[in-house]
Amino acid sequence: MRVRTVFTTQPGQHLAGHGTYSSNGEFVFTPEHDYERVRGVVVVRDARTFKVVREIDTHGIDPHELAWLPDGKLLVANGGIMTHPRTFRRKLNIPTMDPSLCVLDASSGECKEQYRLPDHLLSIRHVAMTSEGTTAVGLQYEGNKDQTPGIVGLYRAPSFRLLTAPAEERRRFQGYVASIAISEAHDLIAAACPYGSGVACWSLRDERYLGFVAASETYGLSRVDDGSILASQRDGTAYGLDEIRLRSQFLQISSTQPIRWDDHWVATP
């Protein structure tokens, strides 16, 4: 692998999650944590030089993932958790954390919509979007993992709500989503729960809980062109989700070297 460009963040800031490009490819948008001023920002950079063009306030802290809505507005998942480099990854504000889902005008920086879930301990982190803008949101619970109210939110403008599942199933999730994927073709929302050793599944159409696909250390989820959702495991294996029979179908990986997947991946046709 060859590194093409290296850039540094502004003083007092660090990268906080998943960025995206502008539709014309001229700019890259990165979610960053301004820990000195305790705010989240989307930093807009020239995609060729990575020079900072401007910053957009996310109207929250700990922005983790960005996505473009069909109307050109920017959806931001503010995790709401305060950290600081001097304390490494220690979470500093759990009693007062304030996660939110924000819709921003990327040109003006204006916050057009902002949503919060009833339980402020549900950190809003990962997003997956349909062509019409319906968005599944992966959550991370900072309370008792056996008592999590849920792990997936669903944004259908103008509402944002928690998807339901039976109490005994919610305990299996262990309060943590590493990746989320959504398939219109297969009527499926999938949330990877590595601490719960599997993938939780819902119907996109009627929001009904479908069940749990058991598979250890599943972190990455990604949809491919035919609507299938593929998953990766830490040990280097990968599989496709069979939402009808709720089981995994393992894929043959062609590689001469050992593989160990990262927490996220993007699958292409």
Describe this structure in words.
- This protein is mainly β.
- 3% of the residues lie in helices and 42% in strands.
- The protein has one helix spanning 167-173; strands at residues 13-15, 20-21, 27-34, 39-46, 52-57, 63-68, 74-78, 100-104, 111-115, 122-129, 135-141, 152-156, 159-162, 179-183, 188-193, 198-202, 209-214, 218-223, 229-233, 238-242, 247-250.
- The radius of gyration is 18 Å and the shape is globular.
- The relative contact order is 0.09.
- The mean pLDDT is 91.
Could you list some keywords that capture this structure?
globular; 269 residues; single chain; 1 helix; 42% strand
Written as H for each helix and E for each strand, in order along the chain, the element string is EEEEEEEEEEEEEHEEEEEEEE
Count of helical regions: 1
What is the helix content?
A: under 10%
List low-confidence stretches. Answer: none
